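Quick question, first post here. What does this chain look like in 3D?
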Amino acid sequence: MNLKRARVLISNDDGIHAPGLKVLERVAKKLFKEVWIVAPETEQSAASHSLTIRMPLRIRRLSPKRFAVDGTPTDSVLLGVQEVMKDNPPDLVLSGINRGGNLGEDVTYSGTVAAAMEGTLLGIPSVALSQHYQDRQKVSWATAEHWTADVIKRLVKSGWPKGVLMNVNFPDVPAKQVTGIEVVRQGRRKIGGDLMAGTDPRGDQYFWIGAQRDEESSRGGTDLGAVNAGAIAVTPLTMDLTHASALKKLKAALA
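> Answer (accepted):
Ran it through. Tokens below.
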């Protein structure tokens, strides 16, 4: 892929006005010939790979190459490819930059990763990008902005198989303190460890799922281990969820 001739579609799950989207747009405009943005109208964090099929969707044009969709990240990429850019589809889909890492089991909930999944299903090379943080009010956007172009260039040069998407996470350290780029497997962490209960003004009980996670934060060779050690984590994710060894064993057992 010749980056200077390429058309790129950008989406996210934090919404059309998210700071991470603006960071990615700035970087992309220095790399690619054309940058198109089709993102959710509002924040859709943890929307996963949900598709809106029970109600109509609307596209709002904000500028010649910027559009907002009143749906999910998946809706946004689908409409971006099949409607907004239908006459000349994108060469690459970029999703992010998400406010917060998408590490371990986050990838199954993440709308950011889901946007890249949709691009992958549509046959377009796709990359999800996220900026890890410890303090939500002090996100290291400068780190992501400094390193994103280099990561994208390396990934595009290397290439990857169809049915695979790239999940990139930037560490919460200053750009100059990043220890490098590590290609690692998905780690383990599960959100929802601090489920909270309360009572609303009408006296009805409610529950609120918090952000606390049980995680293997330092396990080597994983996205969590790399990011917590100050490295950029790159993880190839496959759309085929089949467990190969279990499949083989079951075939033998059930034959």
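The first helix runs from residue 19 to 31.
The radius of gyration is 19 Å.
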